[in-house]
Design goal:
By secondary structure, the protein is of the alpha+beta class. The chain has one domain. The protein has a 5-stranded mixed sheet with strand order 1-2-5-3-4, with no helix packed on it. The mean pLDDT is 83.
Length: 123
């Protein structure tokens, strides 16, 4: 954990110094949906300080079956994961997602992963 909790991450190299290490249990979204008999997923909001790729990778069945709308934060500065930052977009493109960002209170389509903000919408 970092002193400023906004920077806590599953990465081994967060953006601020680590003050304390805490072990947390994780579960793939696909498994959570199955174990809790959830029959529909319309939206996924994801802000996991760089672990978005891992979240969506563990959501294969959800993304394939429901194709929910996605709101997630993209932070190209987080390090310490085994994937590259653009991998999340490459993964989601395989499910047919297109990407948008909010600029000046307007939703703008983004091509080539050239984002100007961190808040991404995908459908």
């Amino acid at each position: 954990m970092c002193e400023d909790h906004a920077y806590n991450s599953l990465a081994n190299k967060p953006l601020q110094p680590i003050k304390e290490v805490v072990t947390v249990e994780t579960m793939q979204l696909d498994k959570f949906i199955e174990e809790n008999n959830i029959s529909r997923v319309d939206v996924i909001k994801c802000d996991t300080e760089g672990a978005e790729y891992l979240v969506f990778k563990g959501s294969d069945n959800i993304l394939r079956k429901y194709k929910p709308k996605l709101f997630f934060e993209y932070n190209p500065f987080v390090k310490g994961f085994m994937h590259k930052h653009d991998d999340v977009f490459l993964l989601l493109k395989k499910y047919g997602y297109e990407f948008y960002e909010f600029r000046n209170h307007t939703l703008c389509k983004v091509e080539n992963f050239n984002f100007q903000t961190n808040d991404i919408y995908a459908e």
